[in-house]
Amino acid sequence: MKFLLVFDFDHTIIDENSDTWIVKCAPERKLPNGLRNSYRPGHWTEYMGRVFAYLGDNGVKEDEMKRTMTTIPFTAGMVDLLEFIGENKELFDCIIVSDSNTVFIDWILKAADFHEVFDEVFTNPAAFSSTGYLTVQNFHAHHCAKCPKNLCKRKVLKEFLDKQLERGVTYTQIVYIGDGGNDLCPVMFLKKNDIAMPRQGYTLEKKISQLAQDLSPVQCSVLVWSSATDIMSYLKLLVKE
């Protein structure tokens, strides 16, 4: 009996958006208007590439970025939740599917000593170039019209489950914990026995309740959370069963 926990990262594990937090490193802690206005919907990763180039042009170095990123607060109750999952790893497989990037997530998890809690992290690959600039790439290509060009979380989840199945691993239940609009696509892939946990007051919760009003509700159960303590209470019930 094993459960799969799928976490989003920004505004779920951490209480901020890592991509906008990095702007604290910019001169005067803000971006020029031209750069800020260059974002096109669905093309966030390319936009962040331009942000990182701007930071590099302004002499922002890796260690300064790392120092800034590791000050991001975790969501209320999240530290306790991740410790609880870490203590019960025989029951929980745990993955992150995020539109952030490998460098940011790695820094934040390692600084708090939580990297061992997660079996895999699926996010946009990032690295520092030989000139010290942070570069980021799209996670994959996909054909999903609902998702941003660089990442369809449903595709990631489906491929992960297929790979686990080949290894002989099946899950009693999938628990999907997220907040954003791009979390709806994987939530719609969940089955009746699974559970979606949208963060209260965020886009995912609104989109799920809109679907219910349109009489095309998601198949899985839905349990809203406002602090990670709510998630932990649910997981403790699972463990007791």
From TrEMBL:
NCBIfam families documented for this protein: DKMTPPase-SF (TIGR01489), HAD-SF-IB (TIGR01488)
Tree of life domain: Eukaryota
Classification via InterPro entries: HAD-like_sf (IPR036412), HAD_hydro_PyrdxlP_Pase-like (IPR006384), HAD_sf (IPR023214), Pase_PHOSPHO-typ (IPR016965)
Protein name per its UniProtKB record: PHOP2 phosphatase
The keyword Magnesium is annotated on this UniProt entry: yes
Swiss-Prot/TrEMBL cofactor(s): Mg(2+)
Family: Belongs to the HAD-like hydrolase superfamily. PHOSPHO family.
Active site: residue positions: 8, 10
Residues annotated to bind Mg(2+): 8, 10, 179
Amino acids binding substrate: 19, 99
Native source species: Neopipo cinnamomea
Keywords carried by this UniProt record: Hydrolase, Magnesium, Metal-binding
Gene Ontology MF terms in the entry: metal ion binding; phosphatase activity
Gene3D superfamilies to which the protein is assigned, alphabetical: HAD superfamily/HAD-like
Keyword Lipid biosynthesis belongs to the record: no
Pfam family, one: Put_Phosphatase
